[in-house]
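Q: Given only this backbone (197 positions), what sequence would you predict?
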């Protein structure tokens, strides 16, 4: 006889889903606050970036890229036939010092733009076979809207060069170069911000 299941003390919020029709294919954009598909997202990060130029072959030989911020982040995924084909996360921070990689950019240089609370856009990834469908912009717009709805005053992004123009189109300001991440030692990373009203 199966034991009776008891409800857990934590009830994750309902998923926010948006159905997308792109190039005659159906996709679903979903926001996850308690990502039960975290392992899949971590595996996608490795699969999508392991063949990129400037990455650490040693780091990308692992099966998934996950860190402690994944447990506190808000996550978005785009699925096709229930397979994750794109994902991104955003973390909220009261202080700049808790933003991922905050040591790579001098907080004093942000003074003229105001202060927090801050959101950090990171870990945007699109599976190679699904690039060119506008998924990066869809994920950026969803995260920006969510940040605005939750009282965030400044959004920080640390993109590679190919992401600068799309982020500028969404109102981000380019502030300069920062040191490379150890996972991608030969890829230049940049620093951008967007001030929310």
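A: Predicted residues:
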């Amino acid at each position: 006889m199966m034991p009776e299941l008891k409800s857990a003390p934590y009830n994750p919020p309902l998923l926010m889903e948006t159905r997308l029709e792109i190039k005659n294919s159906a996709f679903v954009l979903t926001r996850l606050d308690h990502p039960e598909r975290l392992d899949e997202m971590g595996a996608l990060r490795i699969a999508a970036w392991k063949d990129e130029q400037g990455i650490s072959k040693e780091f990308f030989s692992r099966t998934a890229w996950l860190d402690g911020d994944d447990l506190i982040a808000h996550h978005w995924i785009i699925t096709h036939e229930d397979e994750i084909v794109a994902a991104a996360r955003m973390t909220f921070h009261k202080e700049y010092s808790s933003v991922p990689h905050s040591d790579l950019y001098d907080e004093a240089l942000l003074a003229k733009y105001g202060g927090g609370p801050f959101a950090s856009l990171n870990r945007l990834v699109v599976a190679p076979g699904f690039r060119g469908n506008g998924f990066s912009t869809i994920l950026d717009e969803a995260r920006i809207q969510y940040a605005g709805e939750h009282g965030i005053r400044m959004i920080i992004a640390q993109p590679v060069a190919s992401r600068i123009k799309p982020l500028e189109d969404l109102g981000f300001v380019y502030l300069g170069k920062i040191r490379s991440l150890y996972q991608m030692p030969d890829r230049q990373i940049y620093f951008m911000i967007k001030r929310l009203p």
